[in-house]
Amino acid sequence: MRAVALLCEGPHDEAVVLGLLENLLGQLPPRVGQAGEYRWTGISLSKAGKRATRQFRRKCGEPPHKDAIRVLELARAVWTEQDSPDTVLIVVRDRDRDEARCRALEWAGECLEGHVAWGCAVECIEAWVLVRCSLDRQAENVPSAPHRLAPRRAKGEVQRILGDEANREGYRRLFAAGYDLDELAHARASEETGLGSFVRRLQATLFTGGTT
């Protein structure tokens, strides 16, 4: 198991990833406790970090979206702060109807060669929550195409299904609960929402040292 740091937009995204990690590993790896420190903004770069980012751009070409540069900059900042260039960055981003965001994460993942497990939630992290709910036999009337729901509608559906559990801890517990991870990774709705490919990248990056 390699040390990991999470880069997420907000606490609900982070909770989903933490739950998946608990499911994968049986317990949280030590570095995951620092997950809340890493966000899209808030880390100032040193001159060395800016030079490194320019080197990444020369190596990989022009990024398709500013999110790609954010990932590169934060990866450099995390590795410098932790003094560990082997730390894996787990990056999750809502697409929010902007396909370039997904391409940006793919670009950064390829550029960083095995140091990033990235996932783009289509359209939002609540779509992933709905996919997970659909595997629970007790959950009724779960939307069959969560990737087609507008973010506000998806949030409303999650609230309807989970009730008081439609919060950060509820999301984490839902994904940490015992279930067949392969079923989750290969369900049709997982493919449509981007969850399946993220789970497979997470497994490959953490346990084989590479990406898929």
Any key phrases for this structure?
single chain, 212 residues, mainly alpha, three-stranded parallel β-sheet, 10 helices, 3 strands, globular
Based on helices, strands and strand pairing, what is the structural class? mainly alpha
Please tell me the total number of domains: 1
Total beta strands: 3
* Uncertain residue ranges: 30-44
String of helices and strands: EHHHEHEHHHHHH
Distance between the termini: 17 Å
- The biggest beta sheet, please? 3 strands, parallel
Helix content: 40-55%
Q: Walk across the major sheet and give the strand order.
A: 1-2-3
Could you tell me the strand content as a percent range? 5-15%
How would you sum up this structure, described in words?
The chain is built from 10 helices and 3 strands; from the N terminus they run βαααβαβαααααα. Residues about 30-45 have low confidence and may be disordered. It starts with a strand and ends with a helix. The protein is mainly α and about 210 residues long. A 3-stranded parallel β-sheet has the order 1-2-3, sandwiched between helices. It has one domain (about 5-210). The chain has helices at about 10-25, 45-60, 65-80, 100-110, 125-135, 150-160, 170-175, 180-185, 190-195, 195-210; strands at about 5-10, 90-95, 115-120. Strand 2 (about 90-95), helix 4 and strand 3 form a beta-alpha-beta unit.
